[in-house]
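Reminder: ligand-aware prediction takes two inputs, not one.
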Amino acid sequence: MTCCNSYSLSCHIQHYGWGKKGKESKVAKLMGTKADPNKPYAELWVGTHKKGPSFLRETNILLSEYIDKEKEAAVGRHCYARFASELPFLFKVLSIRKTLSIQAHPDKLLARALHQKDPANYPDKNHKPELAIALEDFEALCGFRKVDAILHFFSQYKEFARVVGESFVESLIRSYEKSDKDLQRKCLKECFTQLMNADEVVIKQSLAELVSALRAKGLRNSLEDLIIRIYKDFSSDPGVFCILFMNYIKLKPGDALFVRPNTPHAYLSGDCVEAMACSDNVVRAGLTGKFKDVSTLCDMLDYSSEGVDEFVVSGRSHTANIIKYAPPVEEFAVDRIQFVDPPQAFQLEPYAGPSILLCIEGCALTNLEPGGFVVKRGCLPRDVMKCGPSHFNRNYSFYTVQCHLHPCTKRTRLCGLSGVLRAWQRRGAGK
Ligand code: ZN
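Here is what comes back for the chain with zinc ion:
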């Protein structure tokens, strides 16, 4: 017989400077506490990562300590054997006011090598595949554009071609004419490396010329508006030119972006939930005041130039209320659970490993029946009512993240969190 317990989690907020401020921030809203209007609330972290670990709220012990103590009973046999007292995933909510850095996440091999070489700047030795699901209109740069689009921009924006250098642009044109994909990747790498290593004075001057030409234009496209917008914050940063190298992606709520290892990306604006391997391993090279490692970034990147479709994933409709996002990684998969008019009770899917439940809109009450939580209106304990940022309308939106190692079995062990911080854990499931 299965029994289950419910655990609230106290979760960590990261106040990075790019976050939305005060009650504008979805992160601050989810916390349900009074938000300081001048303070950025950038990220909510749910998991065991050392830079922002979650606690069991009732006992105030670290989630990782709890797993360490309960072992398999807490997270299941497979998960414990593989990840010990760490959750395999980190679950976040991001609320972005201002562009995040141009970055990429190393694969496992490179992550280990960077950590060995420079533990101060690369404290993590894990890889970090990540999946961002838009909660509202969301903008990002991700992956390299197709070569013909980049060549078009070289001819359209002479400042861009000048910064990269005529001979490198010529080489890329020749590789394109030959339809030689390997050569195109090599030439694209040279062009990008030239840009990222260009002299700061040259960048500053070229950007100023480009932006003043764009401002003088009567009719601008959305990309040109974006260049002007990002330039306001980063007037001498080569990252502004990266907009012309990288795919500009606009996501609608529910659309997702899967970022593979070594793929350049930058989130520009909007709110999202994000699931990733338990890691904070980032190589940055632009649009940031943090540590930059340009040579590592230029060396590690995947220079396959692909269209937007390579990165944008729609979830798969699983039932009337559940959409599944299952990227090709073992650490995590995400379910989006949505109701317009919620039922009296809703049965969650069983999983073999740990799972987190996060309520974005509405309110939920976890119950002690195996495998379920109750979604009700109007008669909930006060702490759960508090968590629903918009419980006055009828939209209910939840996300769960779970380990993808053994996604479907009858043994159910769940560790969950809803709304601000209501979690539940099922334990003692039959062998
Ligand atoms: Zn990232």
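Residues 99 and 268 are 4 Å apart (CA to CA). The longest strand covers residues 265-277. We will return to this case in the review session.
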